[in-house]
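Recall the central idea of this unit: under ordinary conditions, the amino acid sequence of a chain determines the structure it adopts. In this exercise we apply that idea directly, starting from the sequence alone.
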Amino acid sequence: MLRSEKERVVEQLAERLRSTETLMVADYRGLTMPEIDELRTRLLEAGARFTVVKNTLTKRAAEEAGTTEVLELIDGPTAIAFLEADGDPVAVAKVLNEVARANDVLVIRGGMLEGTVVGDAEIKRLATLPPAEVLRAQLAGAVFAPLTTVVGLFTAPLRDLVGVIDARIRQLEEQGETEPEPEPEAEAEATQEEPQAEAPAEEATEEQSEEPSAEAEQASADEEEGQQDG
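Accordingly, the structure predicted from this sequence is:
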């Protein structure tokens, strides 16, 4: 590789390291070129660009970008999955983990989650989370949790969100999903309201029963008056 070409690669890597907060590093030793191409395609669908680079150039790029903490993951043949802004870290971790388990060749070394270096165990744990659509449903279910839990889900860094969501999923599974039953008090109130609605009718009946009494009194008075005249 010419010196100018190396400078261009270093510049591109440095720019990606500066602009990417989440990436995953793997040792691709043993993978064939067709397998690397297939892996690159799957990662691209998940929102990550899989780049195979020389360690010397990566180290220079990391120093230039000011991200030297990633250097502890660079050892041996290295490939980096750089997540795009709309990339799904769970899906990317799943792809890497599936290939690592299927081929027993790819080795996950770790990565950076929102700027913090993590080991391979955290990447593998991230791969065990449900798909993005299931996570969204779990987050929507969090509206029934205390406000502090909801705030924690949306403000926690990605490295902490793994544990937070895991805990929430277990909590929801333990509680189960039950539909609220109608409250007995509401039914009792509805029953009590019915006699009140009949009260005016009863009052009307009483008024009607009083009317004949008034007519009888008038008739009696007229009769007495007729007897006096006679």
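The CA atoms of residues 59 and 71 lie 6 Å apart.
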